[in-house]
Amino acid sequence: MLMNNPMFLNQMDSFIIYAMLLQVVLFFVGAYFQYAVAKKLNHEYAWFAWIPILNLVQLLQLAGMSAWWILTFVLAFVPAVGFLVSFAWTLFIVYLIYKIAGKLNKPNWIAFVSLIPAFGYATSMILLDKMSNPSKDEDEQNNEDSSQTEDDMSDIADDDTDIQEDDYDNKEETEDR
Length: 177
Hints:
6 helices; mainly alpha
């Protein structure tokens, strides 16, 4: 009954059009931020992010893996195993983003954001590009602290040397008497 209702079909058509437009927008958002991440990692062909299959090749290269892994993606179009391969590639992309996050010194949980339906990949690329890098700030803070600590330690060592010299001089004076 529902399928014969013209109002329902109009609503379904509208939903499908909006869903497709959302996917196109999310593709461009994800591609833009993948491009930015590729630039940060000095990828020679950052523009690969804009071309659908090449962006997967680029993800493989950014993660430090062989581009030949893309051949497994072809199995997604084989009817009997396509669903399993598609599921495996979803998890594989999480792994790739995990490795890229490690290269950028970003938190590893960003990779798991890519599992959010529809929005995950674009969101994880945004986080990889825009999220502040706390580890660099901590490293700079630790370097400042360690240089200050080294100065303090050298002052203490100088004081200890002075004390030891004074003790030695006092022992010589006592022996002379």
